[in-house]
Amino acid sequence: MIMTADQSAPAMVTLHRRLLAAPLPLLQGPLEITALAHDLIFQFDSAFNASLLTRFDQLTKSQASLAGLLIWLLADTTFSRVRLSASDLAQAIGTVSIRDDQQIDLAGILADEDLREELIRLLLSALCLCPEGETAAQAEDRLLMVSAAERDRVLAASRAAEQRAAAIREALAEQRAREAADKYTRE
Amino acid sequence: MTPDHWHDDLRLPDLTESGIARLRLMTEHPSAPAFSGRSGHHLNPQDLMQLLAEKPLLQAAPDTNTSPDWLAPYVADCLARVPAYRRYGTCEDFQALPFTDRQQLSKDIAAFVPDDLPLGRMIAYETSGTTGHPLTIPSHPRVAARYHCFHEQALGWHGISLAHAEGDIGVMLAGDQERCFTYVSVVPYWQQKGLVKLNLNPADWPSEADRGRYIDSLKPILITGDPRSLATLLTLPFSHCPVAILSTSMTLLQGLKSALEARFGCPVINLYSMNEAGPIAASDGQSPGLRLLQPRLYVEIIGADGRPKAYGERGEICITGGFNDYLPLLRYRTGDHASLRQEPNGALYLDDLDGRPPVRYHTQYGWLNNVDMTHSLQPFALAQYQLHQQACGAVVLRVRGSADQQALHAALAARFGPAVAITVLTFQHLGDKTVQYTSDYPEAMR
Fold first, then answer.
1. Is A181 close to B175, i.e. CB distance below 8 A?
2. B373, B349: one domain
3. Mean pLDDT across the stretch B69-95?
């Protein structure tokens, strides 16, 4: 994910505080997650297409709990100065996760500063935002430091890029041994 | 050879009977040269339909705005899909984007191929260049076929319509080298007309006289070549006149151009084309300089400080865009130098185009650059030359083939002054990729 510096998210300290202030009912669930998502997205784009919300009907209970926490984070008034598209918001809220295969323990996340940091940074990265006071490169570095999931993703992307480059080199080497297609001028 | 010999689904899919007849004519003619290889267009019916559909777009007039509409989305696409460009992050300001050059392509060409392109039909062109960075250019048969659209466009500027040109053989690509890859083929998007790539070196022919006989029998509509091979054509006795001659690869001096025009009575079109980007500009017969051809190729002229130059100012040609899906270019420094000029009708021209970095020469009267030298040599019909200034200031002009050494000496002496030692040498062969202007004189490469 490429982060941009043209607009900043709130500072990390603000977002940590926001997470720590999450209300108890949010952590205990169950939540009307589609309704919460609607209200949040509406604040950023009142003309958004309601079909974006269908993805929230399919979340597991655990995923819905995490989405609720993300909505709480994004509802902080400091985000009101940030321009975000409805589709980016729906995508981020519906997909950001710090643990793919395990039950998400919201209380555990909130109690652990590193996990809070990871969650915040994953969300901002998904929205192509940098925390206030950080460059895109710094934000990417810090995300890599705190997030095992991000490290795995970068590693997998790097491995895929290597495989692709190797395939191209191999195909070109094979083609070099043959003639190319006709061209009727020299260059 | 039997007709079956020519059926080749990979190289020449959907070969017609008339195509086979033309292949046979080109290879079985009693004066035909020996051909060293086989080649083909590799185009299937879907490719041909696509070529037909995109032709109007390829032949549209270039958008001459300083920031054409297509540029920002193109850059964003490159940054998203091309590994080498992805590391740039985002683009807020086009002129803040880093340059790319031949060395970078040579080092890791795979990083310039977009992520999502299939590799199954990718082809490769190899180029040695003059910079010491051999390069393999990834491409596709459809990309190679698009050249035709640009050649058609350049010919159209001279009032020539290829679609209506009569003849069985469309193109004769003439080389004049010790050895080169030669073949026959057909052009499926031009009524399966024949295409012959041949070497004028007498070693390839039954006899020297067969060269002219073969050309007169085939009557190619177009003849293409570099100034060396075109100069050799002038020495051959044959009567056929093509509808046009395309000159590529090296500087075409006015003297040689005039000699070709006088002999063949047809337009001689100087084409600036490179493997990395295809045909970039061509002479249009109306204005001096070479007119930009591609509608989606953004040309900047860059100074030594990396800043864009204004119209009329000389610098390195830097290109963005192009038509090779397998090698999208972003601020690619070509190593060639020119200035850009806009005519009142909007058309853009490259003036005083010269390959390779500028060299200045120390004369009795002060410094002169290589463009001045080209102007001095324009009247001569030189096929190939190299001008070198030694560290002591002496000047050596090496010329391929016969030339009026006395007149050349006088032309250079007028520029350098009588105190500078000048030697003019003629050679039967210069290297294939000879650098035209070189110097060992102190501060010549400033």
1. no
2. no
3. 91
